[in-house]
Amino acid sequence: MPPPDDYLIFGPDDVDLSRSPLRASLGAPTFVLGAFNPGFTRLPSGNLLLMVRVAEALVEPVFDDHVRAIRWTPAGYRLEPFPIPHVEQDDPRKFTLKGGPNRLLALTSLSWLLPVELDPDGRKVIAVHYDKAVEPAAPYQDYGVEDARISRVDDAWYMTVCSVSAERHATCLYLSRNGLDYELLGLVLDHQNKDMLLFEGRVAGRFLALTRPLGEAYFAWPHDSLWAGGPSINLAQSPDALHWRPVEGFGIRARKDSTSANKVGGGTPPVLTPHGWLMLYHGVETRGVAGVYRTFWALLHPDDPTRILRIEDEAPLLEAAPDLTIPIADRLYLDTPVAFTTGIVDAGEDWLLASGEGDLACRLTRIPKSRFA
């Protein structure tokens, strides 16, 4: 029987928390809420790398009439207590502080990144590199680092990460010369942006990236417009991958009649194909606490990516596959199906996609390249 082309490759039970970076200073017992949303790339050896987001949560988050969050400090990890009467806990991933002039959140877990090396076909875990884990290292990351996206440009690997703190909710950039060891270069987008990812290649000598800025308010389109309004995917350009300027005139926006009109956001780094830049992105349907996440795709002009050549925003390319999580169903904590695609690599006649399944585990899916012709 041939091996499956859609499977879970790494999940919460595969993480050895005795080797977690939190163990050096955090005495409280923890568990893995999820090991998911991996950055994805191919190493010089031909092996594959998943940069797995490990969401590590407290076994006993409530203590002495307070709910506690984990926070990084230069002196080590500490527990931050919030009085229970002052919080709302309606989402297993976070809680909201009540009574202030602004909406304030705190997380029920702290995320760090774990490099997991796979064989060239993505069928087998070769090594789990705890010694190369990426953990918070600056005040703007004190509540964790989330959802890596890895893009190879020229002879280097660029990894964007969402950094979470009370100070900022921003995008940071890491650089690697071998695909495995990453150096923090610092903040590159100072506003809230969950889905910045670099194109895998330059256009007219420039770095390009997808962005998805968020805000407290959005302005309405005209009544006869096709668009629903709200968060959308835009482009930014840079001479050096550090200094970014928005590109005018581009946008992938949610349509009013789409089942995923709540918001859209970047998924995989755009890769150049004979038909244009292939980008996979997510759309969200409003349902339950988290919403339903599905993967869609578009082709952008190879020389002018502001031109959308084709877009498939109706039937999803990928959606949650509940059968895959049956063996770990007792670990599921979301009330809606989620497939969040975060990486793509060339696998000969196929593209190999990496996704987070259910905010719980890492999923790999093979899709023929002919699907995007």
From TrEMBL:
Q: Do the record's keywords include Hydrolase?
A: yes
Keywords from the named record: Glycosidase, Glycosyltransferase, Hydrolase, Transferase
Q: Name one GO molecular function term.
A: glycosyltransferase activity
Q: Which InterPro entries does UniProt cross-reference here?
A: Glyco_hydro_beta-prop_sf (IPR023296), Mannoside_phosphorylase (IPR007184)
Q: Which Pfam families match?
A: Glyco_hydro_130
Tagged with keyword S-adenosyl-L-methionine: no
Superkingdom field: Bacteria
Q: Which Gene3D superfamilies match?
A: Glycosyl hydrolase domain, family 43 (2.115.10.20)
Stated family: Belongs to the glycosyl hydrolase 130 family.
- Protein name per its UniProtKB record: Glycosidase
